[in-house]
Amino acid sequence: MRRALLATAVVLAVGAAAAPAQADPTGPAGVHPTLRSSLVAFYDFDHPMPGDPALEADQGRSGTEIELIGGGSDLRVQDRAYPGGRKVLQTGAVAGTANDRKAGIWSASGVRTLRAYNAAEGATVMGWYKRSMDGPAAGFNAIGLTGVLTGDSDGHAVRALLELIDVNGTLRLVALGRRLDGGNSQTFAATEDWRTLLPKDQWVHLAATFDFTSGTMALYRDGRAVEGFYTRNDDPWLLNGPGPYVTTATDPRGIKIGGSFPWQGSADRNPCDCRMDALMLLDRPLTAREVANQYRFMNRG
User: Fold this and answer.
1) Which of 47, 146, 165, 259 has a CA that sits 20 to 30 A from residue 132's CA?
2) Average pLDDT, whole number, for the chain?
3) What is the pLDDT of residues 24-75, one digit of tens each?
4) Helix residue ranges, H only, the chain
5) pLDDT in tens, 120-175
6) How far apart are CA 248 and CA 250, in angstroms?
7) Looking at the DSSP assignment, which residues form a beta bridge with residue 144?
8) Whole-angstrom Cα distance, residue 283 to residue 118?
9) What pLDDT is stored for residue 93 in this prediction?
10) Ordered domains of the chain (ranges, CATH)
């Protein structure tokens, strides 16, 4: 069974290479023009792949289609995260089954369309989120939002991740990054209460930036920087060792959205009972002004 799942994931990864023709060469309308050259992937859940509505086409430059897992096209629901928005992604755990609702792509050999994160200096993960849960699912300590996997990931380990996770006994909104495959992660955690940052059943725009050369990260909510702190004061990214200070030179094994293990038939580790839209993956850490510009650009419709 496991072998069949991996084979399916590899087919999806190979298929992603053909998707650039689906993207608008001038860039997605919802993306600020100054960011379009850095946009690796963009998912607005209004673009099912022709012939297979269980796949969502990438409107970014990489053409990395993702699978809507645990429900296919039914995971696209009507809602409006921002002016001009239409369909959004609905994720969440499904009681009594292994097919939790989530999205993403995974390949044991790496997803070559995500090569922008191979030996990368930085990244940004950004999107609109509306949470409906009151805390992590029973038995878990985190709520997964959106992340880029490492080159050796089992479907959980990440290079760049936006999520909610327990930090010293308190659930917090965090940016979690890992520079080296198999290496340690660093976490930048928001100081403010997560329920204030993500009010229940309300749309908010979130962004996490990662600078792998300097070892810095940042969080943003509705275009404004979020005060926070690093959970480690040592050198988890090994920036005091020999350079260059970039991520491991491997293609990421995929993208995870709404939890972990982005393939059919896998129960989740950190399911998110959430709605999401306009998910953006960029190949550099955006500045505070760029994040604010993107938020305002989308908000004006």
Assistant:
1) 47
2) 91
3) 445 688 999 999 999 999 999 999 999 999 999 999 999 999 999 999 999 9
4) 2-16, 194-197, 288-299
5) 999 999 999 999 999 999 889 999 999 999 999 999 999 999 999 999 999 999 99
6) 6
7) 163
8) 10
9) 87
10) 2-299 (2.60.120.200)
